[in-house]
Known about the structure:
By secondary structure, the chain is α+β, with helices and mostly antiparallel strands.
Amino acid sequence: xxxxxxxxxxxxxxxxxxxxxxxxxxxxxxxxxxxxxxxxxxxxxxxxxxxxxxxxxxxxxxxxxxxxxxxxxxxxxxxxxxxxxxxxxxxxxxxxxxxxxxxxxxxxxxxxxxxxxxxxxxxxxxxxxxxxxxxxxxxxxxxxxxxxxxxxxxxxxxxxxxxxxxxxxxxxxxxxxxxxxxxxxxxxxxxxxxxxxxxxxxxxxxxxxxxxxxxxxxxxxxxxxxxxxxxxxxxxxxxxxxxxxxxxxxxxxxxxxxxxxxxxxxxxxxxxxxxxxxxxxxxxxxxxxxxxxxxxxxxxxxxxxxxxxxxxxxxxxxxxxxxxxxxxxxxxxxxx
Length: 336
């Protein structure tokens, strides 16, 4: 199974992962090449040319789904990331429709999609180039984060997801490698349309296929990915928030099947047992986002934004946060 985001946006100083742990039966692992923009930005690299009105400058990511290039948009006169999808021509029309839908999501916390198409038998996506690292790299380099910083990252990600959900897009693969952290501390959600397209391609042909990244997958998505809705994104963001706070995901199992079963059946660990100084309100929100039943989670990205903003305003106090009952199971989110 590939190891990272479907072909995540890439920053100058660190390359985002280029392929995802998407289909549970898969076994191959894809990782990004580790060269910096400054090391490889030569336009005379053999084999590079122009694609979709973009001059390709260097390969900045590679994986099971294809390659990511740093490019210069000849019309807009800006740097862009170009994702070239391998073996995608059979579904080019649908991919382009999904890309067009994603391009309508214009929000400061979403990576901007400029255009997509087919050229020289290559299916490609042109999008905003991000100067920064993805959250997976941040956690790898910095370890677990202070709770205020973790909440800020989660809040910005939730705002991006709220914009996507309002446009009818469900990501279905929210995880640290699909959250870019800019040089100024901003957060941008990547691969909205691409993730949906890649999932849909398998959904049409594999009844009951399990698609997504097992460590971050909602229970209902683990059972059947076709049932995924906005609340799956809420769950995955909850797993990501848990990891930012505790330095590890809630369920650390060996093997994809064990991981999926843990999401479906195992009680959510009490994060306060791992982070002793965590405010109660933050712990309550994490548990609410990780509720097994979708109807007991915040309804969508917008609901998560509301709760996170209240927590930030109260400096982590329980006011406005979902309650956790005495069994450690989250109750429905309370809107005050």
